[in-house]
Every structure is written in C-alpha cells, then in structure tokens.
C-alpha cells in the first residue's frame, strides 16, 4: 500500500522549471527512498504549487515525515518561489492537505470501454477547485454513492483521493484508457456524470471562474516527476 501526502502552497508564476531543477538535483544526489519516499510529483495551477509525495509506509508510524535528507537546503532554495497557502500557517505541516475520501475498485480495473485494463501504470490527473467550508463529509458521501454505481467503470477510474486545505479542493484521480479530457468529452452527457456534477455544485466551485469552461480547465499541470528505482 502506498501512502500519499499532498502539500499545497502558493507559487510564483513561471518558476516551475527553477523549482523542478532544485528537486531534480537533490533527488539525484541524495536517496529519498532511505526516508521511505518512493515517488513525487510536482504540479502547478493558477498560482498554486502542489507536491504529491508517495511513501512505502505510513509516515505517522515511521516518523519519517520529510521527503529528502536535504530538507532545509531545499526549503531555502525554493523559498523565493514557494510560500505558504493557509492563512494560519505556522510550520511546514500546516501545508499538508487533509485527505477526506479515498476509493479503489474491489474488482480488477477496466478501461473506459469496459474491457480489461492493459498493463502499465495508470495515468494520474489532479483536479483543483474550491470547496465550501465544512462540506468535506457531504462531498465524500456524494462520491461514495457515485463510486458505488457505474461511473468509475465508464471513466476507467482505478483510484480516487479527495483532499482539502483551507478553501482548496484537490481531486487526485488515477485512470486507465484515453486521456482525461477525452473521457469527459465522451461521457459528459451520461446521467451518472451529470448527476454527480449537479450534486457537487452547491459545495464545489471553480478555482478561477473567469477561466473555467469545463472540467478539463480544472486540471493541474505536472512539471516534475521522480520515482525511486530501488
């Protein structure tokens, strides 16, 4: 079982490559896996910095809560570009989003057409929006009801994790089959898809209404990925 932490901060627009280079250097010259870290993905979205850290053991049990041996050096190097998001931030742990829902299928995954999924790692999409304060239990229930129905199979979903931090909502989606925008375009008129969008609308809203036209406009951009080889 993989344990995932999601860090959310503010980010200077256009600084993605600089931040990626910092992590690239330390991921090559140190051994994050010695601290239990087996992968990381960095994404950006409308001034947000999103850092997904994957571990092979629960950091609450191991006590290994930092992602690299050179944690302090990294913090100093990315400090001019990455700053806290939460209003009441006091220490790095305050930037960790809270997981409030997860789902994986009981049966082997299938693609969007209902056929057995091919070999290989599922694709990952991170959807970003705003969440109404205190709405996490309701949103979790909406997804639980939907995930018990046909929609995950229709969309080729192999895993779903929901997080929140302040007013930011993060939906980490793992899938097989065609790209996310293609899956949405082909199935947006399905009753199950329309229902969950309607059910979520009182609680989830676009992060930037001025640039939102469809669900694909809420997808964060990946700018760095690393995975341990041993």
Features:
globular, 7 helices, 230 residues, 5-stranded antiparallel sheet, alpha+beta
Write the layout of secondary structure elements.
Elements: E1 3-11, H1 16-29, E2 37-45, E3 48-55, H2 59-62, H3 71-78, E4 82-84, E5 98-103, E6 123-131, H4 136-147, H5 151-155, E7 157-165, E8 168-175, H6 180-187, H7 191-200, E9 204-206, E10 221-227
Antiparallel strand pairs: 1-3, 1-4, 2-3, 2-10, 5-7, 6-8, 6-9, 7-8
Helix pairs in contact: 4-7
Fold and architecture overview:
This protein has 230 residues and is of the alpha+beta class. The strands form 2 sheets. Strands 4-1-3-2-10 form a 5-stranded antiparallel β-sheet, with helices on one face. A 5-stranded antiparallel β-sheet has the order 5-7-8-6-9.
Sheet with the most strands, sense and barrel status: 5 strands, antiparallel
The total of helices stands at 7
β content, as a range? 25-35%
Basic shape: globular
From N to C, what is the helix and strand string? EHEEHHEEEHHEEHHEE
Based on DSSP secondary structure assignment, what is the total number of beta strands? 10
Low-confidence stretches: 111-119
Strand order of the largest sheet: 4-1-3-2-10
- Output the structural class: alpha+beta
């Amino acid at each position: 079982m993989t344990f995932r932490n999601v860090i959310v901060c503010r980010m200077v627009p256009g600084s993605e490559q600089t931040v990626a280079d910092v992590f690239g250097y330390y991921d090559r010259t140190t051994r994050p896996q010695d601290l239990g870290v087996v992968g990381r993905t960095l994404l950006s979205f409308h001034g947000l910095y999103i850092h997904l850290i994957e571990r092979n053991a629960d950091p609450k049990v191991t006590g290994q809560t930092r992602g690299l041996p050179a944690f302090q050096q990294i913090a100093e190097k990315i400090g001019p570009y990455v700053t806290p998001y939460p209003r009441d931030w006091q220490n790095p742990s305050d930037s960790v989003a809270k997981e409030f829902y997860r789902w994986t299928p009981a049966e082997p995954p299938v693609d969007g057409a209902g056929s057995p999924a091919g070999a290989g790692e599922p694709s990952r999409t991170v959807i970003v929006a705003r969440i109404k304060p205190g709405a996490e239990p309701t949103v979790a229930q909406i997804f639980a009801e939907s995930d018990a129905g046909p929609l995950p199979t229709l969309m080729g979903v192999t895993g779903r994790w929901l997080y929140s931090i302040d007013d930011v909502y993060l939906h980490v989606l793992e899938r097989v089959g065609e790209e996310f925008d293609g899956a949405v375009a082909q199935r947006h008129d399905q009753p199950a898809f329309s229902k969950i969008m309607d059910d979520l609308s009182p609680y989830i809203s676009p992060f930037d209404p001025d640039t939102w036209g469809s669900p694909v406009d809420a997808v964060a951009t990946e700018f760095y990925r690393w995975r341990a080889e041993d």
